[in-house]
Amino acid sequence: MLVRRGFYWAQFGAVIVLPLWLLIGRGLVFSGSGWAFVMLLIVAPILFVYMCLILGLTLARKSVRATKAVSWIDVALLAVWWLVLIAAGFVRNDGIAAIAILISIGAFWLQLWQLIRETRDRFNAATARLTDSYPVTPNPDDPPRIIRIDQ
Predict the structure, then answer these.
(1) How many CA atoms lie within 13 A of 93 on its CB side?
(2) Is 57:108 a contact under the CB 8 Å cutoff?
(3) For the chain, what percent of residues have pLDDT higher than 70?
(4) What is the distance of C-alpha 3 from the center of its chain?
């Protein structure tokens, strides 16, 4: 639980730190190219907004809000994603950038899938409670009910 809570709280910092790391690390320190820095001036804000979207999808799940901990699938995904983004700040390689983009797209769909699944399960549980309280099919042993319209 401690690791999962650590990743929960680390998401808030990573939203700011990782785009800045790409901008500073790859754009200024390790690249040496002015055009790379200009390109990263476009990419870093897009990454910031995208990471905010992933964080929002994560926080939309009730289980995450209640426990202040992400799932183990989130831990694995975030660890790999963050390591690839850190590596992208050190190395100028198109393969690492492509892997980072693929993991980013996968992160969106995984978070969306988890949100839909959890919402569906909560809805089904609520529906089951309602149908248990109020049976939909009448009991054949019950006498027929007579409803008077004139009153």
Answers:
(1) 12
(2) yes
(3) 85
(4) 17
Residue 45: band (very low, low, confident or very high) from pLDDT cuts 50, 70, 90: very high
Here the tokens at position 94 are 């198109």
Distance CA 50, CA 105 (A): 10
- Cβ burial, residue 139 (10 Å; 0-12/13-18/19+): exposed
- Provide the whole-model pTM: 0.78
φ/ψ of residue 66, rounded to 5 = -70, -40
* CA distance linking residue 91 with residue 86, whole number of Å: 9
Token representation of residue 24: 């500073």
Answer for the pair 100, 84: CB distance below 8 angstroms, yes or no.
Answer: yes
CA gap 47, 41 in Å, rounded: 10
Q: Which of 1, 147, 4 is nearest to 73 (CA)?
A: 4
**CA 93 vs CA 36, 37, 73, 78, 86: distances in Å:** 12, 15, 27, 21, 13
Q: Note the maximum CA span of the chain.
A: 88
